[in-house]
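User: For my dataset I need records formatted as: sequence, then structure tokens, nothing else. Please produce one.
Assistant:
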Amino acid sequence: MTGYNRSTFYQYFKDIYDLRDYLEDDVLSFIIAEREAALPLFEETDWLQHVTEIDVNWLQHIAHIFEEKQDYLAVLLGDFGSNRFTDRLKGELPSPLPNKTPLDQESAKIYFVREALFSAAVATFRSWAKNPNYLTADELATLIYDLFIHGLNSETGKNILAYL
């Protein structure tokens, strides 16, 4: 379908899964290289203080990643993608929230808040990859920011954060 000879494909890849692994590694390597510019490094103990101070630049940086690797991500997050990649992606994206396995009830709450935010953001960017003509990546980041971050700054969000 690509116009290349089948033997050309097999010069570079063992099979379709090898190609998928290559795409995954390329995207994740790009994210790791870009991640440091996305957020100041927060101390784990200060995450609650900083989570309400996050500006839209955090999500715009993630949007840049999705825009830069849009073709690969459309495949990797598409119908034939894997949950393993989605989990790896959420683990590598820049975040003010620590990505640690919960050890107690308090750390479990942080873990689940991060999981909810990242799952929603990745699902939204996944849908955007299928329909990128309606919003720019920055417009989508602003939309996600307004929905999720301002939601945390609402009275209900403040109550939840105070509870955490």
